Amino acid sequence: MTTVYVPRDTTALALGAERVARAIADEAARRGDDVRIARNGSRGLAWLEPLVEVETPAGRVAYGPVAPKDVPSLFAAGFLAGGTHALAHGLTETIPYLARQERLTFARVGIIEPTSLAAYEALAGFRGLRRALELEPPAIVEEVIQSGLRGRGGAAFPTGIKWKTVLAAPADQKYIVCNADEGDSGTFSDRMIMEGDPFVLIEGMTIAALAVGATRGFIYLRSEYPLAQKILTDAIAVANDRGYLGADILGSGKRFDVEVRMGAGAYICGEETALLESLEGKRGMVRFKPPLPAISGLFGKPTVINNVISLASVPIVLDRGAAFYRDYGLGRSRGTLPLQLAGNVKHGGLVEKAFGVTVRELLYDFGGGTATGRPIRTVQIGGPLGAYLPESQFDTPIDYEAFAAMKAMVGHGGIVVFDDTVDMAHMARFAMEFCAFESCGKCTPCRIGSTRGVEVIDRIVRNEERDKNLVVLDDLCTTMLDASLCALGGLTPYPVQSALRYFPEDFGLEPAAAAGPDA
Amino acid sequence: MHARSNTAETSAAAQPLDAERQAEVERIVAAHTNVVAPLMPVLQAVQAALGYIPRAAIPQVARGLNLTRAEVYGVVTFYHHFRTEPTGRHIVAICQAEACQAMGSAALTAHAKRSLGVDYHEVTRDGVFSLEPVYCLGNCACTPSIMVDANVHARVTPERFDEIIDELRAAAR
């Protein structure tokens, strides 16, 4: 029997993977070939999806992008034995895009069937949890601190420090909350983990629970991810069934229960305190801080709230040790970051690299330039609140501090590529418009400032008292930056001001006028 | 950004729920008695069962969960995905976020509105489609993306959009 892998990841399905799987099953039946079709997550080579892989004695051989009409010719070419074909890429592991990555958090994604516990265990699964069960809580926390892992949701706060605060907070009940409200445009790494390797998230949450003394966990998942909901729910059921979750984790006497809760289409609920409000069944209004969620979080109890990738990176830290993880990266940005190449890019997908890789390497060595074949004019990194980078900044390494120094942010690692047809005044206006649409309304700079921002940008573009309105926009951005309650209002000026600073000609200004708003 | 229909806010009195739908809401509330913070899951279940959250269901949900009507109304109207009006049989959502804009989602949106003959938050005359905006479907490496009910479609050209629509329209007949 030959195993053929056809991904059941959202992107692969959106490109017809289901029909491809059916075509392969039908053709195999017609020819009398003994084929098992396995449904894995995605390898993250999005431009090759649906990427079909065949298990051979030499390893897995890749074919893609496969359409149903290609299936008869694949069989004719002997693809079940790894035969050559126009769509063949050789051994999957040797495809340069994959071979050049450092896959720690994504070690299993695309390789295993997501809800197969046996496959997970066979590739080091639950080894981190077993080690954590042998340690005292402070030792687990210390390991995470030493790894240098910082919050991958975007804020980059040290994960271990957050845990330490929760561990030290006395309470009858503590919670682990996973922020799976991945709303940033250009990001899909959380989704790929949840769809492709859900056990690693469950394991990470369980380790967090052991570290701080929590017994209950919630995954707050955005409603745009129905497939992730299904796969996570199935995986949680398997983990409960096999004693990795529930009243007595692996016979330790420790309890931890996890459930998935769905959002309802509000970007602001990716902000941790708005998320907690939403989990409590309220409007997703941002809370004042302090108190920090680590002290008074969900239902007023000490709460660890971490992004999917942060939690999914914990098992390998516990399994291989803090030093192993910390040895990747540079400066204060340790370990790896799953970057996502998105938008107008030829080879879009998931690239997990140690911090230090440059934007240019990502865009050209991995991304291969634009999909349209035109020059790259700008990239937006870090979601809708991230700055637009001009070509002159493409040699910047992916590093939290290097990005902060140029008023940009790494955020959740999404890189949206635009070619030279983009209108940057439109993108700046969109940033304000998006903020107005998604603002929770609690603080004035965000609620009112975003609407005024749209109007002011319109006036600048229409050349209505342009110089005066540039001053107003600068003032407005300063107010939003300094006085907003959370990152939505507080970072919306990043895309706006970077667009104006580096692409003033799109606003009807002379390129030389760019210096003004930079001050 | 895209003004949402304010019919729900302005209509004088909500139509009372018929007995069948009232019983359905009752069942949903009863099924969540042991759930911590049940409001969001209850509203999601009501919308899944009835297709939307009728205004008349709000007092019933409030009573069942021991909340005020204002609290329930506040939550229903905060979240973009909660709907207080019936929809078409299929919901077509077009991603408006940056990664899709970079690959022509504005042109796709214009085409969709023209081809369906509706604006956002409207239902086609035959009742088959509702058109909605959405901000990111997590399919950003193969854009522009649309979601039809629970299915995402990648690299959607205007031609591909029409194929998807024609197929569903034919099936709806």
List the uncertain runs of chain B: 3-12
Distance between the termini of chain A: 67 Å
Query: Based on DSSP secondary structure assignment, what is the total number of beta strands of chain A?
Result: 16
How many helix segments of chain A?
22
Instruction: Tell me, briefly, the overall form of chain A.
Output: globular
How confident is the prediction overall: mean pLDDT of chain B?
93
Order of helices and strands of chain B: HHHHHEHHEEEEH
Quaternary organization: heterodimer
Total count of helical runs of at least 4 residues of chain B: 8
CATH architecture of the largest domain in chain B: 3-Layer(aba) Sandwich
Q: How is this structure best described in words?
A:
Chain A is α/β, with parallel strands linked by helices and 519 residues long. Chain A has four domains: 98 residues, Glutaredoxin (3-Layer(aba) Sandwich); 210 residues, Rossmann fold (3-Layer(aba) Sandwich), CATH 3.40.50.11540; 91 residues, Ubiquitin-like (UB roll); 95 residues, NADH-ubiquinone oxidoreductase 51kDa subunit, iron-sulphur binding domain (de novo design (two linked rop proteins), Up-down Bundle). Helix content of chain A is 40%, strand content 15%. Chain A contains 22 helices and 16 strands. Chain A has a five-stranded mixed beta sheet with strand order 2-1-3-4-5, with helices on one face. A five-stranded mixed beta sheet of chain A has the order 13-12-16-14-15. In chain A, strand 12 and strand 13 form a beta hairpin. In chain A, helix 7 runs antiparallel to helix 8, helix 9 packs across helix 11 and helix 19 packs antiparallel against helix 20. The longest helix of chain A has 18 residues. The C terminus of chain A is likely disordered. Chain B is of the alpha+beta class. Chain B folds into two domains: 64 residues, Arc Repressor Mutant, subunit A, CATH 1.10.10; 83 residues, 3-Layer(aba) Sandwich (Glutaredoxin). In chain B, 46% of the residues lie in helices and 12% in strands. In chain B, a hairpin with a 5-residue loop joins strand 2 and strand 3. Chain B is elongated, with a radius of gyration of 18 Å.
